[in-house]
Amino acid sequence: MKYGYFDDKNMEYVITTPTTPLPWINYLGSDEFFSLISNTCGGYSFYKDAKLLRLTRYRYNNVPTDTGGKYYYIKDGDTVWNPGWQPTKTPLDSYECRHGLGYSRFHSSKNEIEASLLCFVPQKDSCEINKLTLTNKSNQAKELTLFSFVEWCLWNADDDMKNFQRNLSTGEVEIEGSVIYHKTEYRERRNHYAIFSVNSPIDGFDTSRDDFLGPYRGFDSPVAVESGKCTGSIASGWSPIASHEINITLAPGESREFIFLLGYIENPKEEKFTEPGIINKARAYDLIQRYQTSEQVDKALADLQEYWQKLLSRYQVHSANDKVNRMVNIWNQYQCMVTFNMSRSASYYESGIGRGMGFRDSCQDLLGFVHLIPERARERIIDIASTQFEDGSAYHQYQPLTKRGNSDIGSGFNDDPLWLIACTSAYVRETGDTSILTETVPFENDWDKAAPLMEHLKRSLNFTITHKGPHGLPLIGRADWNDCLNLNCFSEHPGESFQTYGPSEGPVAESVFIAGMFVKYGEEYAQLAELMGDHDEAARARSEVATMYNAVLNYGWDGEWFLRAYDAYGNKVGSKECEEGQIYIEPQGFCVLAGIGVKEGLAQKALKSVKEKLDTKYGIMILQPAYTRYHLELGEITSYPPGYKENAGIFCHNNPWVSIAETVVGNGNRAFEIYSKTCPAYVEEFSEIHRTEPYVYSQMIAGADAPRHGEAKNSWLTGTAAWTFVNISQYILGLRPTHSGLMIDPCVPEGFGDFCLERYYRGTNYHIQVKNPSNVQKGVKEVIVDGEVIEGNIIPIVDRKDVFVEVIMG
Hints:
Distance between the termini: 40 Å
Helix content: 25-40%
Oligomer: single chain
Strand content: 25-35%
CATH class of the domain at 4-309: Mainly Beta
GO molecular function: carbohydrate binding; glycosyltransferase activity
InterPro entries: 6-hairpin_glycosidase_sf (IPR008928), 6hp_glycosidase-like_sf (IPR012341), Gal_mutarotase_sf_dom (IPR011013), GH65_N (IPR037018), GH94_catalytic (IPR033432), GH94_Enzymes (IPR052047), GH94N_CBP (IPR037825), Glyco_hydrolase_94_b-supersand (IPR010383)
Mean pLDDT: 95
Pfam families: GH94_b-supersand, Glyco_hydro_94
Keywords: Glycosyltransferase, Transferase
Shape: globular
Domain Glycosyl hydrolase 94 supersandwich: 12-293
C-alpha cells in the first residue's frame, strides 16, 4: 500500500494522506541551523547542536505521537484546522505534503479556504522561514483568525526535560511589535537568544503556554484559539511559547501571504552588556529585514534549490531503471548529506541528547558525501582525528559543538581506529589532496599532543597490530562494528576501556570482522604511505596485512563461512559448532569485499551460505539462528527478542557489504537483488508493512523470527545511506576513484541495459556511456577516452573541463 508517490521531476516525495504509518520527516538546513519537520508539521529546530542549543521543544515517545512543532491554527467560524492536519486533526477537504531537498510544502483546504505552507532554512542564515498563503476559494467574504505557535526549549534539551525545580522559574520573553524574543538565560551572558516574528501587524499574542492552552488542555484545543483571542500573556518562568494572533478578512478569490521567521541570534563574545537580560536586537532586525517580502523568500528558496541541483549533479546516472535513477540521483545522495550534518544525533529515533557525533559513524558517512563536498569532508576528518587518543584508539562519540569526546560512552570499540584510515583514504582518492596527510592534528584536542594526520593513521594501524589475541586476530575490546557483541562481559569491571590492555593481558576476545577491515584498510594505508614516498612503511603495512590474511584463513574459516569471533574464553562465535548464532553477516561481507578467500574459492562458499541461511524477502539478516536466551559471554546482542536489532534483525547497513562482495566475485544478478531488497524505491509498494519513510533508508528491518517481519525502524541517520551509495555508484554501476584516476568496472544484472554516468572528479566533468551488447554481468572489453582507446579500465586524470568516455562491456 502506498501513501504517496515520487515526483522525480521536482525531486520531491508527495504524501497524499496525513495518516502515514509513522511520521514521515524531512530535514531543513545544510549549514548550522537545522529543523526536523514531519508530514503533519511536527518537529523541532536547533543551532549546531541538538542537545545544547535547541530552540523548540519536541516530545519523544508521547501519546498522541509526533507532539510538538510549528503550528498554524486557522479559525473559520466554529471550525479550527491546521495546514498539516495536526494537532487539531480536523478532517480536511484536501491534503498534500511535498518533502523536497531542504524544504517541505503543505497544501490543504477546508470549507473553501486553501492553505499553502512552505518551510525551509535559507542558505547561510540561522533561521527557518515559514511562508503561509491563505486563499478564499468561495464566492463570499471570509472572516478568519490565524494563530501561530511554537514552544521554546530552554536551550539544553536534556536539562529542559529534567530540571523542573530550576527551569520553571527561568523563562523570559520580550515582545516588540510582531517579534517575540526568547531570552531565557540571557542574563547569564550566554550571548544568544531566539526570535519568532511575522511580517504583518498582529492583533494579539501569547508567550505563556498555560495561558494559551488553558488548564488541562492540549495542543489540539487551545483555549485562546477556541475563544478566538490571545490573552496577551507575558511568560515569567513556567513554559514560554510564542503565538501571534492575526485577524483576516478575505474577499472571494483573495489571497494573503504571511512570512513567519524562527531565528537564532548569537552576538560576538567581545560584546559586553551593562544590564543582565538586556539583549542587543540589531542582528535580529537585520535578519528579519532579509525575509520580509515574498520576493525575498522566493529568491532564497531558488538559491536553495540551485544549491542542491548543483551539488547532486556531481554524480548522476541515466538508465532504463527509474528506481535506480531516482535513488542515485536524488534521495540516496540527499540522505548522505543529512547523515553528514547529523551523524546519529537528531532524528525521530535519536533524541538529539545522548549520542552526538560518532567516531565510526562519521568516518563511514564520509564515504557517501566526500564526492559532494570534499572541502567539508576534509574539515570533518580533522575533527574526527582530533578526538583520537595517542595510542590510536578513540572516544566512540563526540559532541558536535565542542568537538570533545563523550566520556559517558568512552572508548574501547576496537574497530574505530581503522575507520579513520578508511575515510582519509576515500578523501585522498577523491581529491588527490595529500596535504591533509601532513596537516598537524591534536590528540584528544590537546595541541600539546599533536602530530601530522599520517601519524594518526599510523597509530590507528599499529593499534590493531599491537592488540591481537591468541589466534593472531584483532582483539575486539568492548565491541566492534556490532556494538552489542560484547564478548568480554565476564570482566569484573565492565565499564572500563578495554583498549588499555596489551596483547597478552586482560580480555582476549577476538574479531574476525576487524581482521577483514585490517586487510582492506591496511592496504589502503600502504597506498597512502607510498604517495608520501615512505616505501618502507608501505612494505611494513603490507607484511602485516599478509599476516592477518593468513590468520583469517587459518583461524577464521569455519568450513562453509567465516567465523564471527572468538569469545573471552576462546570459544567460537558464529560457527556451525554453536547452537544459536551459527552464522553472522558481517565477516561474510567484509572479508570477501577485502578480497579474503577469493582466490582460494572460500568467498563463493561464504556468499552461498549467506543466501541459504540469512536471506529473506526483505533483506539479509545479521545472524541465524536467533538467540532465544541471554548469554552473558555474548552480551547485549542476546538481550533483544529474536528478529530485532542485532539479534537476527535485518541490518540494512551491512547488506551493501554482501552486495559489494558479490560484485567482487562477478555476480551482478545477486548483487542487484540484495541492493533492491532494502532500496526505498522498491519497498514503497508495501509501506503499510515497512512503515518508515519510503524515500530514505532505515537502519533496521525486523527479521524472519520477529512477529512484524519486514517492519523498519530508525530511518534517516544510518550508515546504510553511505554504504549503499558506495555499493550502487562504485561497484554495481562501477565508477570508483583511485589514486591514478576513475576506474570503470560495472557489475550489473542481466538485462540492465546500457546506461550513462555523469561524474565530476578533480575539476573535470566525465561523461561516460556504458554499452553492454553481450548482456554480461561483469567485464570491460574496451574503454575509449575522447576517441582514443586506453589500456586497462582506469580513466586517467586530465586537466580539461570535459572528458567523454565510451565503455564496452564484454
